[in-house]
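Hey, resending since the last one bounced:
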Amino acid sequence: MAFSSNTDGDEVLSEINITPLVDVMLVLLVAFIVTAPLLNNAVHVNLPKTAATHPPEPAKPVTVSVNAEGKVYVDKTEYPLTGLELELKSLHDANPDLTLHLSSDESVNYGTVAKVMASIERAGITKLAVLTQAD
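The structure tokens again:
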């Protein structure tokens, strides 16, 4: 005996059944809750008490700036492009772990900035950050 309804039987059901998805997510949640404490493989030891130590503060980075006219400054002191390498080399000799920040006006000729970067490289400085402004 066949039952029939007034609706057309060829229609596709367009609803998403999320019950299996919820079941899988709950199983995964329980699995992570059970295994999370086991992920800590540290050996528990009683550490000795010592006096507090303060690590040295990192050295303030040196800023090399190139303004719109192409003048080069090292920490607000103007240097000619030809004397920049000697100044940077002396700073690097005083602090081999020197960090340098390079900033330049966006209207500066690329060649000027490239010459400054070449001077920085020849001075032996390897830690260089090029500063930009966020949009």
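The two ends are 72 Å apart (CA to CA).

Sorry for the duplicate.
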